[in-house]
Specification:
- The structure is a homodimer of 149-residue chains.
- The first copy, chain A, is mainly α.
- Chain A has one domain (4-137): Arc Repressor Mutant, subunit A (Orthogonal Bundle).
- The first copy, chain A, is 54% helix and 4% strand.
- Chain A is built from eight helices and two strands.
- In chain A, strands 1-2 form a two-stranded antiparallel ribbon.
- The radius of gyration of chain A is 17 Å and the shape is elongated.
- Chain A starts with a helix and ends in a 12-residue tail after the last helix.
- The complex binds FE2/S2 (inorganic) cluster (2 copies).
- One FE2/S2 (inorganic) cluster binds at residues 92-94, 96, 99, 104-105, 107-108, 111-112 of chain B.
- The site of one FE2/S2 (inorganic) cluster has 11 residues of chain A, from helix 7.
- The structure holds a DNA duplex (30 and 30 nucleotides).
- Chains A, B: InterPro entries: Tscrpt_reg_Rrf2, WH-like_DNA-bd_sf, WH_DNA-bd_sf.
- Chains A, B: This is Rrf2 family transcriptional regulator.
- Chains A, B: One of its GO terms (molecular function) is DNA-binding transcription factor activity.
- Chains A, B: One of its GO terms (cellular component) is cytosol.
DNA sequence: CACAAAAAAGACAAAACGATCTTTTTTATT
DNA sequence: AATAAAAAAGATCGTTTTGTCTTTTTTGTG
């Protein structure tokens, strides 16, 4: 569904949403370690997010990445648009150029409701709202330190 | 979600399910034209499907691809397993190594139910059942000839 | 048998994606 | 001013995916 890049980006944003603010900035190195993602790759993604106003950053010693008030009002959907673009969600599951109720493919009726619902949730829920949920539900953005067998 | 290859394969199988049988075989050329897919690429995929018993074929003049009784009892899921493998459905939406209710990621609760539902439908519905539906509902596996603006 | 039609097989090319590395710019601290 | 820490920028590399091409094998037909 999403590219690796996009998954890293979303997790990084959530990490920043939880652990950073205007006065607590975090460097790529730390983020990459915590999320167990390739560091230079993540750096590039963070740049892209920063230039699209989804993440804030300051250079120099003590600098790093963080989310400000504005950034926290963005949504997962904004991140997806920024990194992957929307076409994956527009396209038909079987590769027809357009997914539409007008000329549905044979799996349209099973796939389409799902797509719409997820899309709405991703679009409507702000990062800060999502972080609230994370704190309540105890969900997880990294498996670092987990002992999976 | 699915690779291009897999989408082509599914559509090709559905095409064959509708238009072929033991006595009416169809060549790659025709199939590729009707589905508007790259011909040599599709040929390779059909070979793969054939060697996995999802499609039947005969060589020589008058030969071609077709679905026999057995082939029509397979499911979309079988095609996906054959071409893409299952890992895309096992993996977490945000890229955590395992998607599980045990250590859910922040979007697990919105994504997971749908994944399960779709997976079941793909697994349980045979190709022949699906073709029945296609005939009733008038869904479409190619946009060839459609005038989309 | 000779021929032609078709799939089977596999080598090869191009593009997208994933990831790394090096250099430059900015800036806080000494 | 010098230094060092950090992001910004961009060049580069490897792999996977996608797609093409050529050759071989099989087989029905005249
Ligand atoms: S038309 Fe294929 S998923 Fe909607
Ligand atoms: S754990 Fe992420 S989708 Fe299930």
């Amino acid at each position: 569904m999403l590219s690796n890049a996009c998954k890293y980006a979303i997790r990084a944003i959530l990490y920043l949403a939880i652990h950073s603010d205007e006065t607590t900035k975090i460097g790529v190195k730390k983020i990459a370690e915590e999320l167990e993602t390739p560091q230079p790759f993540l750096a590039k993604l963070l740049r892209q997010l920063t230039s699209n106003k989804l993440v804030s950053s300051t250079k120099g010693p003590g600098g790093g990445f963080f989310l400000d008030k504005n950034n926290k009002e963005k949504s997962i959907w904004d991140v997806i648009c920024c990194i992957d673009g929307t076409h994956k969600f527009d396209k038909c599951f079987l590769g027809l150029s357009k997914c539409s109720d007008k000329n549905p493919c044979p799996v349209h009726s099973t796939v389409s409701p799902f797509k719409k619902k997820i899309l709405n949730e991703f679009r409507d829920k702000t990062i800060s709202k999502l972080v609230e949920e994370i704190e309540v539900e105890g969900t997880v953005i990294s498996l670092k330190g987990f002992d999976l067998k």
